[in-house]
Amino acid sequence: MQLLTIQRILGILLSLFSITMLPAMAVSFYYQDGSIRAFIDAFILLLVTGLVFWFPARHHRKELKIRDGFIVVVMFWIALGIAGALPFFLTEVPKMSFTDAVFESMSGLTTTGATVLTGLDTLPKAVLFYRQFLQWIGGMGIVVLAVAILPLLGVGGMQLYRAEMPGPMKDSKLTPRITETAKALWYIYLSLTIICATAYYFAGMSGFDAVAHSFSTVAIGGFSTHDASIGYYNSPTIEMITVVFMLLAGVNFALHFLGWRHRSIKHYWADAELRTYISILFIISLVASGYLYFTNTYSDPWSAIHHGIFQTVSIGTTTGYTTTDYSVWPGFLPVLLLMVSFVGGCAGSTAGGIKVIRVMLLFKQGYREVLRLIHPNAVFAIKVNNKALPPRVVGAVWGFFAMYVFCFSIMHLFLMATGLDIVTSFSAVTACLNNLGPGLGEVGSNFSSINAPAKWVLCVAMLLGRLEIFTLLVVLTPAFWRR
C-alpha cells in the first residue's frame, strides 16, 4: 500500500478543496452580508492542512493499486465532509453546532439535500451560495474533477474513477484515457449547468437564484435558497424547466456524451435503462396526478397534473425539490413517492438510489429463476440492450442489494433506538441512503429536530449512498487490510 502517495494525493485534494471558499468569499464581499470572515478562516485552515499533508510526501509518485484508490476516495470523502463543515461552524449566522455543520456539509457534498437549516430566505447570500456550490461539486464527484484537471497527480486515475463513479459497470470508459473521460463528463456537466441557469433566469428567477438552483438541479441535490423551495416562485414555467433538467441529470452521462459526439439522439431510446427510467416516472406521474385529482386534493386538473409530475420526477430522481408539502398528501401517495426514490436514476448519472439498471437486473434475474422452475434444463441469458451480461455483473447486483437491505435495516433500527418514531426513522434513512433529502414525519421539511446521534448515523447513510455501499464497506473488511 502506497501510504505516502495516498498522503500526497489527499494533501493536494484538500488544498484544491480550499479554493471552493473563494467564490463564496466573492459573493459575501459583493452583497456585504458579514460572513466573509468565516470563509477566509476556512480557506486558510484548509490550505495549510493540505500543504502539511502534501509537503513531506511531495516526491512520491508511485502508481496506485486498486486498494489505494478505495482508500483515497473513502478518506477524502470523510475529510471532505468535515472540511466542508468549517464555514458553517465558523459563521455567526446561522449559528450551528459541529454536528449540524457536518450534517449540512455531508448532505451538500453527497447531493442528498437534507437540511438542518430554517429561515433560508434571511440567511447570508454567501452561506446560501456555498450550500448550492457544495452540491454542484459533489454532483459528478470531486475526485473525478481532480483527476480531470490535475494530470500532474501522476497516479493511476482509473483506480479512483472505478471507486467513485456510480453504477454496476464501472470499467467502461467513454474515451481511451481516464483523464479525457473525466474531462468529457465535466464539459457535459458544466454545459447543462449553464443552459439550466440561463433558462431559469429568462423564466423569472434573479441571477443569483438562477445560478444557485442550476447548481443543485443538475447535481440532483435539492438545496434551495428559499424555505418553500421551487414552490416559492409559484411559476409553472420554472417548475417545468426544473422537471426537464432533473430528467436530463438523471440520465447516464455516457448517453449525453454519445449524443454530443455523434450529434444524434437515436441512441437514447435504444438504451433499455433509459426506457425503463422514463416509463417508471411516467406511470407514477399518472398515478399521482390522477389520485390528487380524484381525491379532490386539487380540484383543478392542471394543478393536479403539474404537482403530480413535478413531485414524482423530483422524488424519483432523488432531487428533493418541492412545490408543496407532499408528506401531507392523502392515502398512499407519500409512501409511493418515497418508494420510487429507491429506484433512483440511471447508472452514470448524478442521481441517487439503487439505480434503474440494478432494479432491471434484479427483476430479470427473478424472472429467470421462475423460467428455470418451468424449464429446469434450459439456459437463459440475462440481456441488456441485446447483450448478454456476464454472471459476475449479475452476482454483484445481488450482492449490492443484500448489503443495501442490511445497512438500511441496521440504521433504521438504530434511529428507532434513539427515540425516533417508525415513520420518521424509516423515511430519514430512506432519504439519506438514497441521497434524496426530504422525508416524512419529523423530517418532512427539515432534519433540525432530530437528535445528534441520529444525525451522525444519517451522515454515514449519505456517504454509503454516495459511494454506493461497497466502496465504503470494502475498506472496513479485514481481508482488505491483509497483504
Automatic annotation (TrEMBL):
Any one annotated GO CC term: plasma membrane
The keyword Transport appears for this protein: yes
InterPro entries, per database record: Cat_transpt, TrkH
Transmembrane intervals: 12-32, 38-57, 69-90, 133-163, 184-203, 240-260, 272-294, 332-354, 393-415, 454-481
Bilayer topology annotation: Multi-pass membrane protein
Pfam families, per database record: TrkH
Keyword terms of this UniProt record: Cell inner membrane, Cell membrane, Ion transport, Membrane, Potassium, Potassium transport, Transmembrane, Transmembrane helix, Transport
Record's subcellular location: Cell inner membrane
Record flagged with keyword Acyltransferase: no
GO terms assigned for molecular function: potassium:chloride symporter activity
Family as reported in the entry's similarity comment: Belongs to the TrkH potassium transport family.
Protein name: Trk system potassium uptake protein
Gene source species: marine sediment metagenome
